Amino acid sequence: MNSLNAAPVPASIDALVEALQSVGYFADRRLATAVFLALRLQRPLLLEGEPGVGKTALAQALSKVLARSLIRLQCYDGLEQREALYEWNYAAQLLHMRAAEGQGGADMAQVEREVYQDRYLIRRPLLQALQAPAPGAVLLIDEVDRADEPFEAFLLEYLGEYQVSIPEIGTVRATATPVTILTSNRTRDLHDAVKRRCLYHWLDYPERERELAIVRAQVPGASEALATQVAEFVGRLRSQPFANAFQRAPGIAESVEWAKALVALDTIVVDPEVVSDTAGILFKQREDVAALTRDMAVQLLQPADADA
């Protein structure tokens, strides 16, 4: 994607909020401030929070707002450097060496240098992001807490200087500074060295009005009454004393999917029977589905002032 097609960085926090809303992402002021500063200061942004609060979706929305390509590095236990940065096309290198040997009299030192040319390099997400042409890419390093500590140490050079060192080539610096978003579900604590190189924001579940706006935008077929009931029900589900009954509260994605399911069922008003029938959309564990009893559903569906 060339610079002529790139969108400029929004000029203010309010402009960023509006730009994100235009692509269906509803950020509160604190989150928008963190993103704005990350863009202006050209610093990586580390987002931590429970699963389903919109961390990954933010990177996707930013790529649309900035008109930059999205490059995703999905982290997992055992992720190796070669899968994140680069590896050599060993089959092509071997063919090159065999062809040189077949010609006879080849300078093998020269041949070895030739097999480490750019055309034999397979670029993985980090290197793709560094070498993306202007205006640069949006790099999502997703669920970095799932990778191990040696991988965190490997990331430090990229996070601090937007460069990486490749033994056969040397130091590769960013052609255009990538917008870098790291996400973590806090399955373990990240090293302080990673955090120091990033701006930080804890992303919590949305307040009722923001979740309602998300449901309205993502499920236009839902009536105002149904969208409101969904936002209120899920919000109360995440609050005390109900939250203690579940291993994991529903995220924003589950709210949206539940609203879509209710529309598909031609639901006008949510009642305990509908809640019971569709509990598998809100929860993804058997124990949590079982914990959402009919009696609890009745309580959750009561008007908020009924608890007073």
From TrEMBL:
Gene3D superfamilies: P-loop containing nucleotide triphosphate hydrolases. It comes from the Bacteria. Residues 41-197 form the AAA+ ATPase domain. CDD domains: AAA. GO terms for molecular function: ATP binding; ATP hydrolysis activity. Pfam families: AAA_5. This is MoxR-like ATPase.
